[in-house]
Design a protein that fits this description.
The protein is built from eleven helices and 33 strands. It is of the alpha+beta class. It has three domains: about 325 residues, TIM Barrel, CATH 3.20.20.80; about 110 residues, Jelly Rolls; about 120 residues, Galactose-binding domain-like (Jelly Rolls, Sandwich). An eight-stranded parallel beta barrel has the order 4-5-6-7-8-9-10-11, surrounded by six helices. An eight-stranded antiparallel sheet has the order 28-27-30-25-14-31-26-29. α6 links the parallel β8 and β9. α1 runs parallel beside α3 and α8 runs parallel beside α9. The longest helix is centred in the first third of the chain and has 18 residues. The radius of gyration is 25 Å and the shape is globular. The termini are far apart.
């Protein structure tokens, strides 16, 4: 039986083990492409892959567990083993990771008294049920069960959130209750305050540090902290940030490749590393996270390229080759190989086939509910995407004053299907006036959840409940009586396009094309405004004309030989009579297209 131990160094069957690890998030890479990314990690000369496990991805509705298909974590781990990689798993209830709500399920927000990421027993009970399902998969894959999993994380950067040691011990106890036998660790910022708050008193649990520069200082801080335990533990950077994520409306963030290689050399010379990210991938669907900056939330873009050694599509960048050369020189006994490289295709002038306005098919493609006062998205369904709130009014004058109170994140109001108002973040709640033509006008309010925050104090705040919280005010009173439509894109059918389209309304645009051969590509969405793209029914993510990305990556995993269909949902009703598939990403900056 193989054993992995943490002593003065890392030991694999009592032999020193130099951990060279890279992060690949299986949930951001199509299953068909997992092998490509894992092979390229091994080809770099690395021996381990690390991944988070996002709770909300596997339990989108309370009690509904999903571990098959694209969510088959068991297959990912076994595939890594086949490639020749060991595995580090970070299954903590919270993962951050620039992922929707840091991996926490939105349905947790329905209990307004629950304190997440604390020793609140109500929260722990929810984790317990999830861990029972999750660890039935993970436990047999541990190294001492003849699997590839070397170690697991208890919580993620908890020292940047709280200092509830009872909570940390409760999570550890749940892991051991469900069969965890491999070494456990915590990971926090590389300075004393976060290390003390996020680590545990248990001398069997290794504190590790996360950083992306100043390696010598951060490793010294970690070593000094180890001394408080009278331990001479190995130094591990569990997240070495080799790039960064991007937000809507900001320019792409880049890091110099040579600088990275030199800094990584310092890490592997003095300790062990996990590159975050090795391959970032894509925030498909509505899974992107959101940064919190004071009162403003800053949603992250669909691409999770991260300026990593593998780009969003999984191909090696200059960083990859510079790292590979540095490793060859620094660790000459490490085996390396030529990386796999994907090809890309262009398909031009794909014609618009059909178009239809959302409001004309809303009943057919939504989960409908009724309430006297509006319910939030997570109260009605999975808390993701879009919801329409419909009500009616009694007109008292031709021009009426309105407010939409306590709504997130972006609202668009329509009176008898005519657009009258759009607001985002801090504008929401301000008064606005609307001219009413009918005595009893129909009101539709389209609300978009643009992503819950994934880091910081707002995890405990009420601001992460999405949809409409309090309601629509007419004059000085709240309007009552709502139909709520939680839009389900998988209910959209070809026959729905027989309905009509109206200008300046949220709408679906359908494009058809045939392929004799399938390859990877990107869709150019620069002629559209804001929305999502469905490729053969799969939601490949959001776009927004403000950039910095105005294209979306389409893996060949989502295409097929013969007939293909792309449907674009644009909330502003902007469209093009034809679209193009392009062979590289399309970006903009403040100076224009690049």
């Amino acid at each position: 039986m193989t054993q992995f131990k943490i002593d003065k160094t890392l030991l694999l069957d009592d032999e020193p083990f130099h951990m060279l690890s890279g992060s690949i998030h299986y949930f951001r890479v199509p299953r068909e492409d997992w092998y490509h990314s894992l092979f390229n990690l091994k080809a770099l000369g690395f021996n381990t892959v690390e991944t988070y496990i996002p709770w909300n991805y596997h339990e989108p509705l309370e009690g509904q567990f999903e571990f098959e298909g694209e969510k088959d974590i068991q297959h990912f781990v076994k595939l890594a083993e086949e490639v020749g990689l060991y595995v580090i798993i970070r299954p903590s209830p919270y993962i951050c990771a620039e992922w929707e709500f840091g991996g926490l399920p939105a349905w947790l927000l329905n209990d307004k008294n629950m304190k997440i990421r604390t020793s609140d027993q109500t929260f722990i009970n929810k984790v317990d049920r999830y861990y029972k399902a999750l660890f039935s998969i993970l436990t047999p894959l541990q190294i001492d069960h003849q699997g590839p999993i070397l170690a697991m994380q208890i919580e993620n950067e908890y020292g940047s959130f709280g200092e509830d040691k009872t909570y940390l011990n409760m999570i550890k106890d749940l892991m051991t209750k469900y069969g965890t036998t491999v070494p456990l660790f915590t990971s926090d910022g590389g300075w004393a305050q976060t290390l003390r708050a996020g680590s545990m008193a248990d001398k069997n649990i290794l504190p590790t540090a996360n950083f992306g520069s100043r390696t010598e200082q951060n490793f010294k801080n970690l070593q000094d902290y180890h001394q408080e335990f009278q331990k001479d533990w190995p130094l591990i950077c569990m997240e070495f940030w080799d790039g960064w994520f991007n937000r809507w409306g900001d320019n792409i963030i880049k890091r110099d490749s040579k600088d990275l290689a030199e800094e990584v050399k310092t890490v592997i010379t003095n300790g062990h590393i996990n590159l975050y990210m090795f391959h970032g991938g894509t925030n498909f669907g509505f899974w992107n996270g959101c940064s919190a900056r004071g009162t403003i939330d800053l949603p992250q873009v669909t691409s999770y390229d991260y300026d990593a050694p593998l780009d969003e599509m999984g191909n090696p960048t200059q960083k990859y080759y510079d790292l590979q050369q540095m490793i060859k020189e620094t660790l000459p006994n490490v085996k390396q190989a030529k990386p796999l490289v994907k090809d890309f295709m262009k398909v031009e002038n794909i014609k618009l086939t059909d178009k239809v306005s959302l409001f004309n098919i809303l009943e057919d493609i939504s989960e409908k509910s009724y309430s006297n006062y509006p319910q939030t998205m997570e109260e009605v369904s999975d808390g993701l995407g879009y919801m329409v709130y419909r009500t009616s009014l009694q007109r008292d004058s031709n021009i009426e004053k309105f407010r939409i109170v306590d709504a997130r994140d972006r609202v668009k109001m329509y009176v008898d299907s005519k657009h009258v108002y759009t607001a985002y973040q801090q504008e929401i709640g301000e008064a606005f006036e609307v001219e009413l033509e009918k005595e009893q006008p129909k009101i539709d309010i389209l609300v978009e959840n643009m992503g819950r925050v994934n880091y910081g104090y707002k995890l405990l705040s009420n601001t992460q409940r999405k949809g409409i919280g309090q309601g629509l005010m007419q004059d000085l009173h709240f309007v009552q009586g709502y139909e709520q439509f939680n839009i389900q894109f998988d209910k959209l059918k070809l026959e729905h396009f027989k309905s009509s389209w109206e200008e300046d309304t949220p709408a679906f645009y359908r494009y058809e094309f045939n392929l004799s051969e399938v390859n990877n590509t990107h869709i150019d969405v620069s002629d559209f405004n804001k929305g999502v793209v469905l490729v053969n029914g799969f939601n490949i993510g959001r776009y927004w004309e403000i950039g910095p990305t105005v294209s979306l990556y389409i893996s060949k995993a989502f295409l097929k030989e013969g007939h293909n269909e792309i449907i674009i949902f644009d909330t502003e009703g902007k469209y093009s009579s034809e679209i193009n598939l392009i062979d590289k990403p399309k970006l903009i900056n403040i100076e224009g297209e690049i």
